[in-house]
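hey so i finally got around to running the thing on that chain from the lab meeting. sorry it took forever, my laptop kept dying and i had to restart like 3 times. anyway pasting the input first so we r on the same page abt which one it is
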Amino acid sequence: MPFTSAMATVWGLTRHQVHRLNLEAPVRGVWTANALESLAHRCAAISLVVECHAFSHLSAARLHGLPLPMSVDDDHSIHVMRDARDGAVRRRGVVGHRGLSSRDVVDVCGVPVTNLADTWVDIGELIAPGFPLGLDDLVIMGDAVANALGSVEPLREALDARVAPRGKLTLLEALEWIRVGSESPGETRTRLVLVRACLPEPELNKPIYGPGRLWLGRPDMRWKKQRLLLEYQGREFHDSDEQRAQDEVRFAGFCDHDWAVVPVWNDHINTDQSRIDLVLQVADKLGHPPASLNLNAIHPRFFSTRMLELAEVRARRLRARGR
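ok and heres what got predicted. didnt touch it at all, straight out
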Protein backbone atom coordinates (compact mmCIF):
# COMPACT_ATOMS: atom_id res chain seq x y z
CA MET A 1 0.00 0.00 0.00
CA PRO A 2 1.51 3.38 -1.00
CA PHE A 3 1.97 5.98 1.73
CA THR A 4 3.21 9.56 1.96
CA SER A 5 5.59 11.36 4.30
CA ALA A 6 2.61 12.79 6.20
CA MET A 7 1.15 9.31 6.64
CA ALA A 8 4.50 8.00 7.88
CA THR A 9 4.63 10.80 10.44
CA VAL A 10 1.17 9.85 11.73
CA TRP A 11 2.39 6.28 12.09
CA GLY A 12 5.36 7.50 14.15
CA LEU A 13 8.04 6.89 11.49
CA THR A 14 10.81 9.42 10.92
CA ARG A 15 12.14 10.21 7.46
CA HIS A 16 15.37 8.42 8.37
CA GLN A 17 13.48 5.28 9.39
CA VAL A 18 11.49 5.33 6.13
CA HIS A 19 14.68 5.59 4.04
CA ARG A 20 16.27 2.70 5.95
CA LEU A 21 13.44 0.42 4.79
CA ASN A 22 14.71 0.59 1.14
CA LEU A 23 11.20 1.12 -0.16
CA GLU A 24 10.15 1.87 -3.73
CA ALA A 25 9.35 5.50 -4.56
CA PRO A 26 7.00 5.53 -7.57
CA VAL A 27 6.79 9.33 -7.31
CA ARG A 28 8.46 11.90 -5.09
CA GLY A 29 6.94 11.88 -1.60
CA VAL A 30 5.31 8.45 -1.94
CA TRP A 31 6.72 5.07 -0.85
CA THR A 32 5.58 1.50 -1.30
CA ALA A 33 6.97 -1.88 -0.33
CA ASN A 34 6.73 -3.28 -3.88
CA ALA A 35 7.03 -1.79 -7.34
CA LEU A 36 3.66 -0.66 -8.70
CA GLU A 37 3.15 -2.53 -11.96
CA SER A 38 -0.32 -1.41 -13.05
CA LEU A 39 -1.09 2.06 -14.36
CA ALA A 40 -4.08 2.34 -12.00
CA HIS A 41 -1.85 1.73 -8.97
CA ARG A 42 0.74 4.23 -10.18
CA CYS A 43 -1.99 6.82 -10.69
CA ALA A 44 -3.39 6.12 -7.23
CA ALA A 45 0.08 6.77 -5.78
CA ILE A 46 0.34 10.11 -7.59
CA SER A 47 -3.13 11.05 -6.34
CA LEU A 48 -1.79 10.92 -2.78
CA VAL A 49 0.45 13.94 -3.40
CA VAL A 50 -1.32 15.92 -6.17
CA GLU A 51 -4.49 17.90 -5.45
CA CYS A 52 -7.31 18.98 -7.79
CA HIS A 53 -6.30 16.83 -10.73
CA ALA A 54 -7.40 14.18 -13.24
CA PHE A 55 -5.44 11.77 -15.39
CA SER A 56 -5.63 12.65 -19.05
CA HIS A 57 -4.32 12.06 -22.58
CA LEU A 58 -2.52 8.72 -23.04
CA SER A 59 -2.98 7.79 -19.38
CA ALA A 60 -6.73 8.38 -19.57
CA ALA A 61 -6.95 6.42 -22.82
CA ARG A 62 -5.22 3.45 -21.18
CA LEU A 63 -7.33 3.62 -18.03
CA HIS A 64 -10.48 3.69 -20.17
CA GLY A 65 -9.18 0.70 -22.15
CA LEU A 66 -9.19 2.58 -25.46
CA PRO A 67 -7.16 1.13 -28.36
CA LEU A 68 -3.75 2.72 -28.90
CA PRO A 69 -1.14 1.83 -31.52
CA MET A 70 2.04 -0.05 -30.66
CA SER A 71 4.00 3.13 -31.45
CA VAL A 72 3.19 4.49 -27.96
CA ASP A 73 3.80 1.25 -26.03
CA ASP A 74 7.16 2.49 -24.75
CA ASP A 75 5.75 5.80 -23.48
CA HIS A 76 5.25 5.17 -19.77
CA SER A 77 4.78 8.81 -18.75
CA ILE A 78 1.70 9.58 -16.70
CA HIS A 79 -0.36 12.52 -17.92
CA VAL A 80 -1.93 14.63 -15.19
CA MET A 81 -4.19 17.64 -15.79
CA ARG A 82 -5.07 20.45 -13.41
CA ASP A 83 -6.95 23.70 -13.72
CA ALA A 84 -4.99 26.62 -15.16
CA ARG A 85 -4.99 28.51 -11.87
CA ASP A 86 -3.46 25.52 -10.06
CA GLY A 87 -0.52 25.22 -12.47
CA ALA A 88 0.76 22.13 -14.25
CA VAL A 89 2.19 19.23 -12.26
CA ARG A 90 5.98 19.01 -12.44
CA ARG A 91 7.30 15.65 -11.25
CA ARG A 92 9.62 13.02 -12.65
CA GLY A 93 7.76 10.67 -14.98
CA VAL A 94 4.72 12.96 -15.11
CA VAL A 95 3.56 15.08 -18.05
CA GLY A 96 1.61 18.04 -16.71
CA HIS A 97 -1.30 19.69 -18.51
CA ARG A 98 -3.65 22.55 -17.71
CA GLY A 99 -7.31 23.08 -18.59
CA LEU A 100 -9.17 20.68 -16.31
CA SER A 101 -12.02 23.15 -15.79
CA SER A 102 -13.17 22.56 -19.39
CA ARG A 103 -13.20 18.75 -19.05
CA ASP A 104 -15.64 16.37 -17.42
CA VAL A 105 -14.10 13.94 -14.95
CA VAL A 106 -15.17 10.39 -14.13
CA ASP A 107 -13.91 7.74 -11.72
CA VAL A 108 -11.99 4.88 -13.33
CA CYS A 109 -10.28 2.24 -11.17
CA GLY A 110 -10.67 4.55 -8.19
CA VAL A 111 -8.85 7.56 -9.69
CA PRO A 112 -10.15 10.73 -11.42
CA VAL A 113 -9.92 10.52 -15.21
CA THR A 114 -11.08 12.80 -18.02
CA ASN A 115 -14.18 11.33 -19.62
CA LEU A 116 -14.15 9.35 -22.86
CA ALA A 117 -15.06 12.16 -25.24
CA ASP A 118 -12.68 14.69 -23.66
CA THR A 119 -9.89 12.12 -23.71
CA TRP A 120 -10.40 11.60 -27.45
CA VAL A 121 -10.15 15.35 -28.11
CA ASP A 122 -7.04 15.61 -25.90
CA ILE A 123 -5.33 12.85 -27.89
CA GLY A 124 -6.14 14.71 -31.10
CA GLU A 125 -4.54 17.87 -29.71
CA LEU A 126 -1.28 15.96 -29.27
CA ILE A 127 -0.99 14.95 -32.92
CA ALA A 128 1.77 16.84 -34.69
CA PRO A 129 4.81 16.04 -36.85
CA GLY A 130 7.04 13.70 -34.88
CA PHE A 131 4.26 12.38 -32.63
CA PRO A 132 3.59 8.63 -33.07
CA LEU A 133 -0.19 8.92 -33.45
CA GLY A 134 -2.02 9.79 -36.64
CA LEU A 135 -5.41 10.29 -38.26
CA ASP A 136 -6.44 6.63 -38.49
CA ASP A 137 -5.45 6.11 -34.84
CA LEU A 138 -7.93 8.85 -33.95
CA VAL A 139 -10.63 7.11 -36.00
CA ILE A 140 -9.96 3.75 -34.32
CA MET A 141 -10.11 5.32 -30.87
CA GLY A 142 -13.14 7.38 -31.87
CA ASP A 143 -15.00 4.23 -32.95
CA ALA A 144 -14.34 2.72 -29.52
CA VAL A 145 -15.58 5.87 -27.75
CA ALA A 146 -18.66 6.13 -29.97
CA ASN A 147 -19.52 2.50 -29.26
CA ALA A 148 -19.17 3.01 -25.51
CA LEU A 149 -21.34 6.14 -25.60
CA GLY A 150 -23.80 4.91 -28.23
CA SER A 151 -23.29 7.90 -30.51
CA VAL A 152 -20.68 10.02 -32.29
CA GLU A 153 -22.32 13.21 -31.03
CA PRO A 154 -20.56 13.33 -27.62
CA LEU A 155 -17.23 13.50 -29.45
CA ARG A 156 -18.46 16.34 -31.63
CA GLU A 157 -19.86 18.17 -28.60
CA ALA A 158 -16.59 17.78 -26.68
CA LEU A 159 -14.67 19.22 -29.62
CA ASP A 160 -17.15 22.08 -30.08
CA ALA A 161 -16.79 22.96 -26.39
CA ARG A 162 -13.07 23.72 -26.78
CA VAL A 163 -11.87 27.20 -27.66
CA ALA A 164 -9.45 27.02 -30.60
CA PRO A 165 -8.04 23.57 -29.74
CA ARG A 166 -4.83 22.39 -31.35
CA GLY A 167 -5.42 19.85 -34.11
CA LYS A 168 -9.05 20.84 -34.63
CA LEU A 169 -9.00 20.21 -38.38
CA THR A 170 -7.48 16.76 -37.86
CA LEU A 171 -10.13 15.96 -35.24
CA LEU A 172 -12.91 17.16 -37.56
CA GLU A 173 -11.54 15.00 -40.37
CA ALA A 174 -11.41 11.98 -38.06
CA LEU A 175 -15.04 12.60 -37.08
CA GLU A 176 -16.07 12.12 -40.71
CA TRP A 177 -14.93 8.48 -40.54
CA ILE A 178 -16.05 7.49 -37.02
CA ARG A 179 -19.05 5.16 -36.79
CA VAL A 180 -20.95 3.38 -34.07
CA GLY A 181 -20.58 -0.37 -34.61
CA SER A 182 -16.92 -1.11 -35.38
CA GLU A 183 -15.86 -3.15 -32.38
CA SER A 184 -12.13 -3.63 -32.90
CA PRO A 185 -9.22 -1.81 -34.54
CA GLY A 186 -9.13 -4.46 -37.26
CA GLU A 187 -12.80 -3.90 -38.09
CA THR A 188 -12.23 -0.15 -38.30
CA ARG A 189 -9.18 -0.51 -40.56
CA THR A 190 -11.07 -2.89 -42.84
CA ARG A 191 -14.06 -0.56 -43.05
CA LEU A 192 -11.82 2.40 -43.89
CA VAL A 193 -10.20 0.46 -46.74
CA LEU A 194 -13.56 -0.41 -48.27
CA VAL A 195 -15.38 2.89 -47.78
CA ARG A 196 -12.46 5.03 -48.91
CA ALA A 197 -12.45 2.96 -52.09
CA CYS A 198 -15.99 4.32 -52.67
CA LEU A 199 -17.78 1.07 -51.89
CA PRO A 200 -21.19 1.40 -50.18
CA GLU A 201 -21.06 1.76 -46.40
CA PRO A 202 -21.92 -1.50 -44.65
CA GLU A 203 -24.16 -1.94 -41.65
CA LEU A 204 -22.03 -2.77 -38.62
CA ASN A 205 -22.61 -5.67 -36.22
CA LYS A 206 -26.31 -6.04 -36.93
CA PRO A 207 -27.94 -9.35 -35.94
CA ILE A 208 -29.14 -11.69 -38.66
CA TYR A 209 -32.04 -14.09 -38.24
CA GLY A 210 -33.33 -16.93 -40.35
CA PRO A 211 -36.94 -18.11 -40.70
CA GLY A 212 -38.79 -18.26 -37.39
CA ARG A 213 -36.39 -15.75 -35.82
CA LEU A 214 -33.59 -18.34 -35.91
CA TRP A 215 -30.41 -16.61 -34.69
CA LEU A 216 -27.68 -16.86 -37.32
CA GLY A 217 -25.14 -14.43 -35.93
CA ARG A 218 -23.97 -10.84 -35.77
CA PRO A 219 -21.47 -10.28 -38.58
CA ASP A 220 -18.98 -7.42 -38.44
CA MET A 221 -20.31 -5.89 -41.66
CA ARG A 222 -23.26 -6.55 -43.91
CA TRP A 223 -24.71 -5.23 -47.13
CA LYS A 224 -28.34 -6.26 -46.72
CA LYS A 225 -29.56 -5.68 -50.27
CA GLN A 226 -26.72 -7.68 -51.81
CA ARG A 227 -26.86 -10.29 -48.98
CA LEU A 228 -23.14 -10.02 -48.41
CA LEU A 229 -21.37 -10.34 -45.05
CA LEU A 230 -17.80 -9.59 -44.04
CA GLU A 231 -16.13 -10.98 -40.93
CA TYR A 232 -12.82 -9.66 -39.63
CA GLN A 233 -10.90 -12.62 -38.22
CA GLY A 234 -8.60 -11.27 -35.51
CA ARG A 235 -5.77 -13.69 -34.65
CA GLU A 236 -6.44 -13.32 -30.94
CA PHE A 237 -9.94 -14.76 -31.13
CA HIS A 238 -10.10 -16.72 -34.40
CA ASP A 239 -6.74 -18.40 -34.95
CA SER A 240 -7.12 -21.59 -32.91
CA ASP A 241 -8.27 -24.80 -34.61
CA GLU A 242 -11.32 -24.90 -32.35
CA GLN A 243 -12.34 -21.33 -33.16
CA ARG A 244 -11.75 -21.82 -36.87
CA ALA A 245 -14.04 -24.85 -36.78
CA GLN A 246 -16.72 -22.83 -34.99
CA ASP A 247 -16.37 -20.05 -37.55
CA GLU A 248 -16.83 -22.54 -40.39
CA VAL A 249 -20.06 -23.76 -38.85
CA ARG A 250 -21.27 -20.17 -38.40
CA PHE A 251 -20.34 -19.23 -41.97
CA ALA A 252 -22.13 -22.32 -43.27
CA GLY A 253 -25.26 -21.21 -41.40
CA PHE A 254 -25.13 -17.86 -43.17
CA CYS A 255 -24.59 -19.50 -46.56
CA ASP A 256 -27.49 -21.91 -45.98
CA HIS A 257 -29.72 -18.84 -45.74
CA ASP A 258 -28.42 -17.20 -48.93
CA TRP A 259 -25.78 -14.93 -47.41
CA ALA A 260 -22.30 -14.81 -48.93
CA VAL A 261 -19.42 -14.43 -46.45
CA VAL A 262 -16.03 -12.77 -46.98
CA PRO A 263 -13.59 -13.61 -44.15
CA VAL A 264 -10.84 -10.99 -43.74
CA TRP A 265 -7.58 -11.51 -41.87
CA ASN A 266 -5.02 -8.91 -40.90
CA ASP A 267 -2.88 -9.92 -43.88
CA HIS A 268 -5.63 -8.73 -46.21
CA ILE A 269 -5.29 -5.10 -45.11
CA ASN A 270 -1.54 -4.86 -44.44
CA THR A 271 -0.09 -4.37 -47.94
CA ASP A 272 -1.03 -2.32 -50.98
CA GLN A 273 -1.75 -5.32 -53.16
CA SER A 274 -3.74 -7.20 -50.53
CA ARG A 275 -5.93 -4.14 -49.94
CA ILE A 276 -6.54 -3.78 -53.67
CA ASP A 277 -7.40 -7.49 -53.94
CA LEU A 278 -9.85 -7.20 -51.03
CA VAL A 279 -11.58 -4.15 -52.50
CA LEU A 280 -11.92 -5.82 -55.91
CA GLN A 281 -13.28 -9.00 -54.30
CA VAL A 282 -15.92 -7.14 -52.28
CA ALA A 283 -16.80 -4.91 -55.25
CA ASP A 284 -17.36 -7.99 -57.41
CA LYS A 285 -19.65 -9.60 -54.85
CA LEU A 286 -21.58 -6.34 -54.45
CA GLY A 287 -21.90 -5.90 -58.20
CA HIS A 288 -20.11 -2.56 -57.85
CA PRO A 289 -18.46 -1.33 -61.09
CA PRO A 290 -14.64 -1.41 -60.79
CA ALA A 291 -14.35 1.81 -62.80
CA SER A 292 -16.00 3.76 -59.97
CA LEU A 293 -13.50 2.59 -57.35
CA ASN A 294 -10.83 4.90 -55.94
CA LEU A 295 -7.92 2.53 -55.32
CA ASN A 296 -5.59 5.44 -54.57
CA ALA A 297 -7.47 6.26 -51.36
CA ILE A 298 -7.41 2.85 -49.65
CA HIS A 299 -4.05 3.13 -47.92
CA PRO A 300 -3.72 3.87 -44.17
CA ARG A 301 -3.66 7.56 -43.43
CA PHE A 302 -1.35 8.98 -40.80
CA PHE A 303 -1.51 12.63 -41.81
CA SER A 304 -4.72 14.58 -42.17
CA THR A 305 -5.54 16.43 -45.38
CA ARG A 306 -4.70 19.71 -43.63
CA MET A 307 -1.28 18.50 -42.49
CA LEU A 308 -0.47 17.34 -46.02
CA GLU A 309 -1.58 20.68 -47.43
CA LEU A 310 0.65 22.57 -44.99
CA ALA A 311 3.57 20.29 -45.81
CA GLU A 312 3.09 21.02 -49.51
CA VAL A 313 2.99 24.77 -48.83
CA ARG A 314 6.27 24.55 -46.92
CA ALA A 315 7.82 22.47 -49.68
CA ARG A 316 6.81 25.04 -52.32
CA ARG A 317 8.33 27.83 -50.26
CA LEU A 318 11.59 25.94 -49.86
CA ARG A 319 11.72 25.23 -53.60
CA ALA A 320 11.08 28.91 -54.32
CA ARG A 321 13.94 29.95 -52.02
CA GLY A 322 16.31 27.55 -53.74
CA ARG A 323 15.82 29.05 -57.17
